[in-house]
């Protein structure tokens, strides 16, 4: 796996929006925070642009992202927000200059498209983290963990155990992201290989039967069978039917059901996803997972 270089003081970081529309005002806390880290922040043309729900039409968002990818003076790109739209752009992006002059690409949710694409086609690591929109409400740990990774520190976490956890130890390359996005990428050029890897999944605002359908899809497509381990992050705002048509299991119980036949460790409740506490994970990096009464996740 290839890694972009770490940031140093006075480096340039770009903010671009590849999905839902957003204003400069909404990302001002992120700009000020990163300037406080000694970085120069460049705001792309997609910020403040609007085309229905998107941050400008596809052409504008493609060109803005491409320009920041190709600018060798920019050392990292922080995506402004998620929603939907990145998958509309991914096949139009030219990665040749990125491969010569790589930079950290940072975000989560809809940005799972980019994490998966980089892993599947180019074997490059990327950063699963909060985005520019989230800085105002994010936990200190979310923000600090992003800073640590950008400036070259390896990170480790210790969290409380969960009654559904399956104990054990595992090592592997971390892959995954938003479950709904991973489901949508299945069978495409951006589809990930999970064999021997630690799979991370999270989601928001999904019906529980949708979660079940997506987990069945992962199982039937072989993505659960040969994992090193599975980590379930936060599943926020899950939806159920009315009292006469409820699914009968929580999101974590659904995941436990579809992994119970396998013998690898499974962690539930890792603080990454659509919550204020959204800890940074390096996708494509090697990690060591130890699950006992507590859970330790260590970047190696």
Largest sheet: 7 strands, mixed
- How much helicity do the residues have? 25-40%
Helix count equals 8
> What do the pLDDT scores average to?
97
What is the ordering of alpha helices and beta strands? EHEHEHEHEHEEHEHEHEEEE
Rg over alpha carbons: 18 Å
Report strand %: 15-25%
Structure class: alpha/beta
Shape: globular
Strand order of the biggest β-sheet? 6-13-12-7-8-9-10
Number of beta strands: 13
Q: Could you give the distance between the termini?
A: 13 Å
Could you name the ranges where pLDDT drops below 50 across 5 or more consecutive residues?
none
Based on the model shown, name its key terms.
single chain; 300 residues; alpha/beta; 7-stranded mixed β-sheet; 6-stranded mixed β-sheet; 27% helix; globular
Question: What this model shows, in words?
Answer:
The protein is α/β, with parallel strands linked by helices. Helices cover 27% and strands 24% of the residues. The protein has helices spanning 24-36, 58-70, 96-100, 112-122, 140-150, 179-185, 208-220, 251-259, and strands at residues 12-16, 40-43, 74-79, 104-107, 126-128, 156-160, 168-178, 198-204, 229-236, 266-268, 281-283, 286-291, 294-299. A 7-stranded mixed β-sheet has the order 6-13-12-7-8-9-10. A 6-stranded mixed β-sheet has the order 2-1-3-4-5-11, with helices on both faces. Helix 7 (208-220) packs parallel to helix 8 (251-259).
């Amino acid at each position: 796996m290839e890694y972009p270089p770490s940031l140093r003081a006075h480096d340039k970081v770009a903010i671009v929006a590849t999905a839902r529309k957003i204003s400069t005002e909404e990302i001002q806390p992120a700009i000020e925070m990163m300037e406080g880290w000694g970085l120069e922040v460049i705001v792309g043309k997609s910020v403040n642009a609007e085309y229905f729900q998107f941050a400008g039409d596809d052409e504008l968002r493609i060109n803005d992202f491409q320009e920041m990818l190709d600018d060798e003076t920019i050392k990292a790109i922080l995506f402004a927000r998620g929603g939907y739209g990145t998958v509309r752009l991914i096949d139009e992006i030219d990665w040749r200059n990125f491969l010569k002059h790589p930079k950290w690409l940072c975000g989560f949710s809809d940005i799972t498209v980019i994490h998966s694409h980089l892993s599947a086609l180019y074997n490059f690591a990327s950063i699963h983290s909060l985005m520019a929109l989230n800085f105002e409400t994010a936990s200190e740990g979310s923000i600090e963990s992003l800073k640590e990774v950008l400036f070259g520190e390896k990170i480790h976490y210790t969290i409380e155990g969960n009654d559904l956890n399956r104990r054990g130890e595992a090592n592997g390359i971390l892959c995954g992201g938003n479950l709904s996005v991973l489901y949508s990428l299945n069978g495409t050029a951006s589809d990930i290989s999970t064999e021997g890897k630690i799979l991370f999944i999270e989601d928001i605002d999904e019906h529980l039967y949708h979660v079940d359908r997506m987990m069945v899809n992962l199982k039937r497509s072989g993505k659960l069978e040969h994992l090193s381990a599975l980590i379930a992050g936060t599943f926020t705002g899950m939806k159920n039917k009315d009292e006469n048509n409820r699914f009968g299991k929580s999101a974590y119980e659904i995941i436990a059901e579809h992994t119970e036949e396998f013998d690898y460790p499974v962690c539930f409740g890792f603080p990454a996803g659509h919550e204020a506490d959204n800890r940074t994970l390096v996708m494509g990096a090697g990690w060591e997972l130890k699950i006992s009464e507590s859970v330790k996740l260590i970047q190696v």
